[in-house]
Amino acid sequence: MPPFPQLPVPEHFAPERVGEVWRVHYQDRAREAEAWATRHAIRPASEDRFRIALVAVDVQNTFCVPGFELYVGGRSGTGAVEDNRRLCEFLYRNLASITAIAPTLDTHEAIQIFHPAFLTDAGGKHPEPFTTVSEEDVSRGRWRFSPSVADTLGLGERKAERYLRHYVATLARRGKYELTVWPYHAMLGGIGHALVAAFEEAVFFHTIVRAARPDFEIKGRNPLTEHYSVLGPEVREGAEGEVIDRKNENFLRRLAEFDAVVIAGQAKSHCVAWTIDDLLVEVRAIDENLVRKVYLLEDCTSPVVVPGVVDYTEQADAAFRRFAEAGMHVVRSTDPINSWPDMRL
User: Fold this and answer.
1) Cβ neighbours, 10 Å, residue 211
2) Are 304 and 310 in contact, with CB atoms under 8 Å apart?
3) Largest CB tally within 10 Å, which of 43, 57, 153, 324?
4) Beta bridge mates, 229
5) How many CB atoms within 10 Å of residue 97?
6) Percentage above 70 pLDDT, the chain
């Protein structure tokens, strides 16, 4: 078999249902996957000479299905649905070449620093979704740590307020977005937390065809910090230098073992961009040349756009230009892997 062969898309794939929620028929798919491997002479992933990892960032219902909490429609309104159709097709066509899949799962509970319940104003009212909380807002008392939440987390009101001031000041110092209050989303145990059904089915099919376990990466459960990047939280230390959360060293080590790392998912302006940004920093610290083994599927990701409220398209595009200038490859899922730069056995 030639390197990076293009395969047909299996008949079970229903592109018109990518934006829907449904149950995957695992046993049927397993039988079909075994027959598919035999028909196309696909070898187990353990035999790959050139190892490719696909990092699928937050391909979850909460971000990808219209009507869910943080659906990423982009400017077209169909962004995540079309992205995932292309992502599934990319995975199916390249089953024989993709060694491992690492789906990340944004994982939250109600009481977290970016959810409404965490903050109140002087009258006890919680902020509305998409409210931005600046360092000035906190210093002037516009928004404060909810006293009941402070007690629940065992902080006490005084320590909680000190932490909130430290948190927004740290974000401001790093020059990233201000703290954003998001709608309740990706709730652990809820349907929004689950992978998009069509993509889950494709991952399962890959697992059986290649005898390769997916590497699920959970992120975002810490109540005291945002966690856009799978490689680490936004704030790692508290006001007194105490550890809040840590960098995902284990996942970084696993990614370093691959010859190529392909990244897609949602949202281009947030979790995808910040995962790539963190990866760029870490890779450069090891070897500048390793940057060129990272491939970004530009047609399988969209920015956060809420018409009349926020539009992060320009910031997302600027981030991808910066990644390309650094040496990463911005590619399209519809192009054969053989045609991608630096993708050679």
Assistant:
1) 14
2) yes
3) 57
4) 232
5) 26
6) 99
Q: Collapsing DSSP states into helix, strand and coil, what is residue 312? A: coil
For residue 300, give the amino acid letter.
C
Q: Using an 8 Å Cβ cutoff, are 303 and 74 in contact? A: yes
pLDDT for residue 124: 95
Cα–Cα dist 128/49, whole Å: 51
Per-domain residue ranges of the chain: 29-55+82-107+194-264+286-297, 116-180
How much of the chain is helix, strand and coil, in % rounded to 5? 40, 15, 45
Pairing of strands 260-265, 294-297: parallel
For all residues of the chain together, what is the average pLDDT? 95
Token pair of 239, please? 């006001």
Whole-angstrom distance, CA of residue 61 vs CA of residue 338: 32
Report the alpha-carbon distance of residue 11 to residue 95 in Å, rounded.
15
pLDDT in tens, 98-130: 999 999 999 999 999 999 999 999 999 999 999
Which pTM was predicted? 0.95
Residue 316's nearest CA partner among 272, 265, 262 is 272
- Residue 146 · residue 113 · CB < 8 Å: no
Query: Cis omega (within 30 of 0) on the bond before 37?
Result: no
Instruction: Tokens for 194, please give them.
Output: 């689950």
Please list the residues that pair with 294 across neighbouring strands.
261
* φ, ψ dihedrals at 77, nearest 5°: 90, -15
Burial of 71 (0-12, 13-18, 19+ CB in 10 A): buried
How would DSSP label each residue in 71-140?
Answer: ---TTTS-HHHHHHHHHHHHHHHTTTTEEEEEEEEE-B-SSSTTSGGGEE-TTSPPPPTT-EE-HHHHHT
- pLDDT over 80 at 275, yes or no: yes
Beta strands 217-219 and 98-106, pairing class: parallel
* Three-state secondary-structure class, residue 268: coil
